[in-house]
Amino acid sequence: MEMDLLARLGRITARKLTASKIRIHGDYHLGQVLSTGSDFVIFDFEGEPVRPLSERRLKRSPVRDVAGMIRSYHYAAFAALLSGLAVREKDAALLEPWADLWYKHSCGAFLRGYLETVRGSGLAPDDEEGFENLLVPYLLEKAVYEMGYEMNNRPAWLVIPLRGIAYLCGGEE
Fold first, then answer.
1. Contact at 8 Å (CB) between 102 and 130?
2. What kind and span of H or E run contains 63?
3. Lesser CB count within 10 Å: N end or C end of the chain?
């Protein structure tokens, strides 16, 4: 998997990316978004609390927040299977393909909406390869961060970031 990861990251440096940096949310995930029924409200713009304020104030690519939301969808898809509260343990394995399908569909819809909204704005590359080259490092960064968190707090959930890393390296989840 290490060689796959290095190969994936090597593609990122093969061309120059053009995208703007702005002040971003910094801790963007499903828990920071409320649905009003006709719209969505995003709140808690303080950034990731464990990072120093000087780092949270830096301008960054908004694609970093996109990566945070995608990882959040991954957690939403699999948390019910791992918590043992909503699904019996013996049924979890049977439901994994459905959770994976929901995750991919939800992320696809989110990404399509995002890309339609920012197209031509300069906030993200307009072409698919450029956008992917910007998104993948942020997804990997987030999944590696999650891996450390899960090892220290919820070892049974370590499978979520590991599946995300494997998927980004070209493996199937």
1. no
2. helix 63-83
3. N
Can you spell out the DSSP letters for 118-152?
A: HTTSSSS-SSHHHHHHHHHHHHHHHHHHHHHHHHH
pLDDT digits (tens, 9 = 90+) for 75-109: 999 988 888 788 888 898 899 999 999 999 999 99
C-alpha span between 164 and 83 (Å, rounded): 18
Q: How large is the C-alpha radius of gyration of the chain?
A: 17
pLDDT at 21: 94
- Across-strand partners of 22? 60
CA-nearest of 7, 167, 155, 6 to 71 is: 167
For 158, other C-beta atoms within 10 Å of its C-beta total: 17
